[in-house]
Amino acid sequence: MSQQGRKALGRGLGALIPQRPVVPPAAMTGTPTGSPSDTPDTGDRVVEVPVDKIRPSRFQPRTVFNEEPLKELAESIREKGVIQPVILSKKHDGYELIAGERRWRASKMLGYERIPAIVKVVRDADALEMALIENIQRENLSPMEEAHAYERLLNEFAFTQEGLAKKVGKSRSAVANMLRLLKLPSKIQDDLADGRLTMGHARALLSLDSDDQRLEFRDRILSTNMNVRQVEGATRSAAGKGKPPKKGAADPNIERLAISIERRLGVKTKIALKGNGGTITLAFADDDELDRIITIIGVR
Predict the structure, then answer these.
(1) What is the span of the domain harbouring residue 264?
(2) 220 Cβ contact list (under 8 Å, min separation 6)
(3) Tally of structural domains, the chain
(4) What is the dihedral of CA 125, 56, 194, 192, to 10 degrees?
(5) DSSP percent split of the chain into helix, strand, coil, nearest 5
(6) 29 in a domain, yes or no?
(7) Which sequence positions are flagged as catalytic?
(8) Are 41 and 13 in contact (CB under 8 A)?
């Protein structure tokens, strides 16, 4: 892929998708006029592609598509049309989704025959990367889905943690913290995937020394509905960290807030308290990263 293309990929799918008017529902319900075999690579041009010629991505990091949100999306598409085209990779027997699987599933739910799409020719590594970036930026992944997606990029495509962090627009510490979830027992991973436990619970459990302790605390959390602060206090005591922090030591609640901001903005964040106020410092590597932060917080 060209340097310009890689730069666009680093900014997310928005840089890959040209501005276009909304495609009304009526444009997606007619009879398909062509077949995948006679449709050329379209670059950035939006075309109508038969829904039944599209298959899910092999690299989709999402493993769960809840029916109720899909129904809500389908109703939105019925009323307003597909606002953003799906991204497809051309295959010999049809097309494979790179991004937009929820839009595709909702369109199928409505019985639409065609959907607006941009067809790309991409390598498998780029297809996985684009699928991951879209889902992370849309915040649609569960913690475990995100962690497994990172692991797959590291193992199958030889990314380093630092290189991966840069590629998905996150800090290295944010990526490392997600990967640490894979060290948890499978029961706890299932709880995270299903929403029974939160990332805050998981970070507290990771501070314990053994899986037996983690599973014991997991049972306590679920049976007594312990909140994150309660779990943090209990695990500190269990791990021999029950002493109050020394003067000047970092407040774990402030550290947790800084990590949350890092996760949202994808850059190293530092919070320093002073009196009743303080400062928040965001570190960015270059103009592109600054531009991305400005876009996220909406201060143009």
Answers:
(1) 251-300
(2) 226, 234
(3) 2
(4) 0
(5) 55, 15, 35
(6) yes
(7) 101
(8) no
